Amino acid sequence: MKLLDGKVAIVTGAGAGIGAGVADLFCKQGAHVFLSDIDQAAVEHKASSLQSDGGSAFPFTADVRDREAITQIVQSAVTKFGRIDILINNAGVYPRQAFLDMTEEQWDTIQDINVKGAFHCTKLVLPHMVQQRSGAIVNISSVTFFLGMKQLTHYVASKGAIIGFTRSLARELGEYNIHVNCITPGAVETEGEKAVATKEQVAALVEGQSLKRRIIPEDIARVCLFLSTDLSSGMTGQTLNVDGGWVMY
Fold this sequence. Notes:
Layout: E1 8-12, H1 17-28, E2 32-37, H2 40-52, E3 56-61, H3 67-81, E4 86-89, H4 104-132, E5 135-140, H5 144-147, H6 153-173, E6 178-185, H7 199-208, H8 217-227, E7 239-242
Helix pairs in contact: 1-8, 3-4, 4-6
């Protein structure tokens, strides 16, 4: 039996990178996956690929800052399957910007996407999880919160907020048998990484890891799977590093 047979999952930022990796693994494990991404072409292409492989995948073009767009995804999942079992809050951006040059608008944009986006998705999904008295929410933060990284102050601050969000929600929702956990990925090999890091910078990051290989989206997806099944039924409010042994705490 597949680990997610019949489960209904929403994955944000699923057009590429970590989110696409999660969608792929969840489909293989029998879940009905609702993929959300701001990039229409990317999310539709990913869903089509999953469907071709026999996966139950449904693409939606949505900006996580747009509450109405997220509402449509949630309503579609509930109408089609009557429930929502898993939410993966993955959508996020990480542009480099020196703090001294950072505008208030740039700061607000990162917080709105990385933090308020998770707020909207969670707020809209939770009533259904509370009603069914079960659910798993996995928030994607970043190992940079434990390190601090120059030119990423707005991003690191937003990812620290996600860890706090995870812990407080876990306290509130345990009585409903809803598990809320967090993953802090390290340097993950994605297409998006190429736009913000040079090969030399990436090599230096890998050198700082205990495991001398690139972390790939599937590495994060496997931990999302663990946190979305009964394999982790005794865990909530936790933050797990998936970074090749870069940071230990």
